[in-house]
Amino acid sequence: MCCGKDIEVLSRAVCISNGHLLLCHSKGVPHTYLPGGHVEFEERAADSLARELAEELGLKGKVGRFLGAVEHAYSRAGERCCEINLVFSVSLAGLNAPAAPKSMEDYIEFQWVRMAELAQCNLEPHPLRSVIPGWLSADGGVEAWASTM
Prior knowledge:
Blueprint: E1 7-14, E2 16-17, E3 20-26, E4 36-38, H1 45-57, E5 61-76, E6 79-92, E7 108-114, H2 128-136, E8 145-147
Parallel strand pairs: 1-6, 5-8
Antiparallel strand pairs: 1-4, 2-3, 3-7, 5-6
């Protein structure tokens, strides 16, 4: 994780099961985020997402269409952090909400949130709470870009 004058590029998954969205959170931290992680140098964003999901969940995910992006600025330990989240639809065989999947990494856990309750959950970056349903709708209905800046 970097802060300061760097911009982190992250690939994130929107995985839906039984009307629920899969979320991740770092243990001891109240907010949640979409599964995924950092895009490495010279790595395609979709490949990065498949790699991160295998590392985090031990599952091979099928990365689908690009849904949109959210730029996000926040403070961590008094330092300004900026990131770009590239969001894709993903299907993960073997995951069925509401049973929380087991994490392969000891510092994170997964949970499901009902799509009907997404606007009220603690998902960050917060614009995702309102744009994900539009991104998933048949007509798109929402700009592909959102920002907290």
